[in-house]
Amino acid sequence: KAGVTQTPRYLIKTRGQQVTLSCSPISGHRSVSWYQQTPGQGLQFLFEYFSETQRNKGNFPGRFSGRQFSNSRSEMNVSTLELGDSALYLCASSPSGEYSHEQFFGPGTRLTVL
Amino acid sequence: GQQLNQSPQSMFIQEGEDVSMNCTSSSIFNTWLWYKQDPGEGPVLLIALYKAGELTSNGRLTAQFGITRKDSFLNISASIPSDVGIYFCAGTPANAGGTSYGKLTFGQGTILTVHP
Prior knowledge:
heterodimer; A: mainly beta; 7-stranded mixed sheet; globular; B: mainly beta; 6-stranded mixed sheet; 5-stranded antiparallel sheet; 11 strands
């Protein structure tokens, strides 16, 4: 099976702009989670989607949003970018059932905000 | 929120040595996972643990789910240069209910350097 893919791999934006990141999960996985990774804060949970519904959300401002499509692909959007949003954004997919806690990560999107 | 304390923060070892790292929590966890992350890449799942006391191996890697359910250990035997990277523990707290959907709590990571 192909792994989790994320596009684009790298992005450079300026403050105030918005950005959309895309994630394609492993075939058959219906749960997609998003994380922000920074050297100072480590891996921080953003939100999780399952069957097009957001089931869980972390402690991030409303500028961070996401959605999931019927084919389980997911996007996250960050509006009004701030310098502090520079980070590696990771998405992970997981199977249903007893192994649902096993998350498989994509390579990430490196976002730089200037 | 939940926090995982991972130690050591970094390790410098010689090729061929064994490595041990651990992760502790102040509360009980239902699941423990260990990941490895290479620079510029996403974390790769190494081992998943589901039961207290469980001992699981993946090649030269062995991990254990602590009996108290508040800790987990990862051992790497006979290290090689490609073991270099950051190792993360992660888990799902018990009794988290809906707040655990799709959310893993991560440790701060252990940076492993292997000298040839």
